Amino acid sequence: MSTHTDLQILKDICAILRPVERVTTEISGELYVTCSKIIPIINCLIRTLEKLDITHEISECFHKNVLLQLQNRFRGKDSNIETNSFLSISTLLDPRFKKLHFSSSLAVSTAISKISQLMKNNQIETQCNVEENINIPRKEDLWNIHDELIVSSSLNSDEPGGIPIELRQFLNANVVSRSEDPFKIWQKLKDVYPMVYEVAMKYFVIVGTSVPSERLFSAAGNVISMKRSKIKGKRASQIIFLGSLPKKYWK
């Protein structure tokens, strides 16, 4: 029969594992942006566990080990998630998070530099396209000069520190509510920060974990079985696609 001490230990362990389970579930989604959530949610997880009031010695030992493993796994010298460019860039460009959850100013600076370079590369590509269009004979228009000035000004919009003004303005703006959809927010902001928008859209499609792809392989395994080994790839893809649709589309 379980004693009062046993129940207290189990209660403490459940309190420790509950936020871990929630994090695992949230970052394993596939219907929303997950890549930009990794750094913020890990920071929230570690801080939440640090605030727990653990009473028993055994559960306290477990608590310390969990925290130690999280620190080593996500904030270790060779495994700091903030140094991962995919995670750091997507987090900085998420209007809900930006720089809030970074513990390393160096990681923020590095990510900003990479974003700035990506924006400059996009600008150069835009300039090349514009120059190609300029060489194409076109109707004489007084406003052609205006269009050329816009391109020229966008290519020379860096501040002395090397950070594009557009990026600096975005990062200095207030964060939005965590419940907001970053894709919908960026649809409203894309006319204000067009160059930042282009970079953000490239990074938001990155999934935070391999769980969605593992689900896809599991679904494929259910479709292509020993009894249906002769099914063709096109038909299998169609069945898997139909099976992935939300229930609302079947009503």
From TrEMBL:
GO cellular component: nucleus
Transmembrane segments annotated in the record for this chain: none
Top-rank lineage group of the source organism: Eukaryota
Span of domain HAT C-terminal dimerisation: 166-242
InterPro entries: HATC_C_dom (IPR008906), RNaseH-like_sf (IPR012337), Vacuolar_transposase_reg (IPR052717)
GO BP field: regulation of transcription by RNA polymerase II
One Pfam family of this chain: Dimer_Tnp_hAT
GO MF term (any one): protein dimerization activity
Name this polypeptide is given: Zinc finger BED domain-containing protein 1
